Please model this.
Amino acid sequence: MIFKQLFEPVSSTYTYLLGCEQTGQAVLIDPVVSAIDRDLAVVNELGLTLAYTLDTHIHADHITAALELKKKVGSKIAAPAFDRLPCTDHGIEEDRQFLIGSIEIQPLHTPGHTDGHFSYRLGERVFTGDALLIDGCGRTDFQNGDAPTLYKSVREKLFSLPEDTLVYPGHDYQNRRVSSIAQEKSRNPRLGEQKTLEEFIEIMGKLNLPYPKFIDYAVPGNRRCGICPSHLPEELEKYCQQITESQQG
Ligand code: FE
Model:
């Protein structure tokens, strides 16, 4: 399998390119609208055809590239069926394997950051979106987020994967790229093995995070599989403009 971890610097999002060497088919997990040109250049360089885009959840901090990529190269859109988005071509469901060529993706419903959030397991890797970040997790105060639900998703579902499973997060704000289930179990300061549900609820309740600055544009845009609003305040325009440097995570 061909594998690339790509980084989008405006929202610090990781996009993952998975390519099947036998069929040349590829999928992008969580592509960002501002990185379409860069991502397509990578797909082309590798001689791959983008068959699908696959989102982990309805993002609040960036706009998915799903719809624009469909328009540009005809890729199909896969997203959790839970969210009932009319613009998707394939609704992802728990334990219903999703195939791209010979790549077998196992969807795991991991709600708590959002109620429809999915993680995707692929052999020794798991793409955890915002359910589990390196030494952290996504916030639980918007989009039907819920701390006890997230605790359960991480502790019961993700932490039951083999310890050597590599954890590839949806974001990182400190240039970290990959962790493992064993590492997150032992040292995640919010969800590590010593942390009780009560402690986790208290930590999440006291985060005191600012109101997400792009959420009021991103969520409606992403409910339509990635539409940039026509009039953005100047300070938010960068969310819809193509990144210029070819940054790879
Ligand atoms: Fe998110």
In short: DSSP finds six helices and twelve strands in the chain. The helical segments are 36-45, 66-73, 147-157, 181-187, 197-205, 215-223. The chain has one domain: 2-225. The chain has a mean pLDDT of 96.
